[in-house]
Write a structure and sequence with these properties.
heterodimer, A: 3-stranded antiparallel β-sheet, 5 helices, 48% helix, B: Helix Hairpins, elongated
């Protein structure tokens, strides 16, 4: 099955390839994989702590053209969204935008999983950060 | 060797209306070929137990024997229902044999059969069937290393520079594959013992779960090795 022009566009000119420091408390990292095809996808978001808006998103995917295009598109969509808005991105939106054939739907599922994993990693970091803040705030009487 | 014939499931003979056990191919009453309605799985169809270490010679022998018995040439003058049955059985037999003779496909088929998919997401999603995060991290790092070497090669670095690095990257993946293969062998042997011992489901499910994890690793390992081979061929 031939790839759609949009998939090829993203594959040849992937947006936002790269990585951000994993230990940054404002960066959420999602690493997911599809064992059936051996794909691995890493997606990261950098959230502005005061506004809750995603300032930057990066990805690196080792897999087929559709997996690369799905994650590339996901990073484009993530920028400028709030964390909660980001969670509303559905794999079907990616399927429609890239005209993915049925055999490549799992690539879009992978991208949605990666978004969720990245956001949940960010949220986890925030709660642990708040806890340490509270502990610090406790007076050492 | 008998297969799981304890199941009370029957298939019906369309020629005489009699009943036949699920794993026979010809009606015990009227000897006509049974149409492929309700039938056993690939293991039962070939008359072998659900083991992972199958005697491949025996399997081939069974395939050849059935292949001859079902051969459409013998049903050339038979009524249409029998002609169709011979075609259906021949084609199912080919699928069964092709799947079971390959050890990799055999274990995948067994997992499909004996270990129903873990809880799928609400929209049939849920690609994350519990792949250990450590495995993903490792696979990602190894992929990145191969990627860097590829860029090094493309940037016109001397052959020795990237070839040595590539060989070095190969070592941990080869080691991983060896561990993977020996674990797979051990688990397969344990599974086969359980089949013989009619172990309870709770125990066998644990072995099947471990087998599934090994199967999930397999594609990652072979993709990585292929990636290295591709680079070395440049």
């Amino acid at each position: 099955m031939a790839y759609s022009t949009k998939v090829i566009e993203h594959y040849e000119h992937p947006r936002n390839v790269g990585s951000m420091p994993k230990d940054d408390p404002n960066v959420g990292t999602g690493l997911v994989g599809a064992p059936e095809c051996g794909d691995v996808m890493k997606l990261q978001v950098k959230v502005n702590p005061t506004t809750g808006v995603i300032d930057d998103a990066k990805f690196k995917t080792f897999g087929c053209g559709s997996a690369i295009a799905s994650s590339s598109l996901a990073t484009e969509w993530l920028k400028g969204k709030t964390v909660d808005q980001a969670l509303t991105i559905k794999n079907t939106d990616i399927v429609n935008e890239l005209s993915l054939p049925p055999v490549k739907i799992h690539c879009s599922v992978l991208a949605e999983d990666a978004i969720k994993a990245a956001i949940s990693d960010y949220k986890k970091k925030q709660t642990t950060a708040e806890k340490t803040e509270e502990e610090k705030a406790q007076p050492t009487a | 060797m008998l297969s799981q014939t304890q199941t009370p499931t029957l298939q019906a003979c369309r020629s005489c209306g009699g009943g036949a056990p699920i794993d026979v191919h010809f009606c015990p009453q009227c000897t006509k070929i049974l149409s492929l309605g309700r039938h056993g799985d690939y293991f039962a169809f070939l008359g072998v137990s659900r083991k992972l270490n199958l005697d491949e010679g025996d399997l081939e022998q069974r395939f050849r024997t059935l292949s001859r018995q079902f051969h459409p040439d013998y049903f050339y003058n038979a009524p249409p229902a029998e002609r169709r049955a011979s075609l259906e059985r021949s084609s199912y037999l080919n699928d069964a044999y092709r799947t079971l003779r390959d050890p990799a496909q055999r274990v995948e088929y067994l997992l499909q059969l004996a270990l129903p998919r873990a809880v799928e997401g609400p929209e049939g999603t849920g690609s994350q069937q519990g792949i250990p995060p450590a495995l993903l991290e490792e696979v990602f790092a190894l992929n990145e290393e191969i990627d860097e070497i590829r860029q090094l090669r493309r940037s016109g670095a001397p052959v020795e520079a990237w070839q040595t690095r590539l060989e070095r990257a190969r070592a941990p993946i080869e080691a991983k594959r060896r561990t993977h293969e020996s674990e797979l062998r051990q688990l397969s042997a344990r599974w086969d013992q359980m089949v013989d011992a009619h172990a309870p489901d709770s125990e066998s499910r644990e072995v099947l779960g471990a087998l599934r994890q090994r199967v999930q690793e397999r594609t990652y390992i072979s993709n990585l090795l292929e990636g290295i081979e591709r680079e070395l061929a440049q």
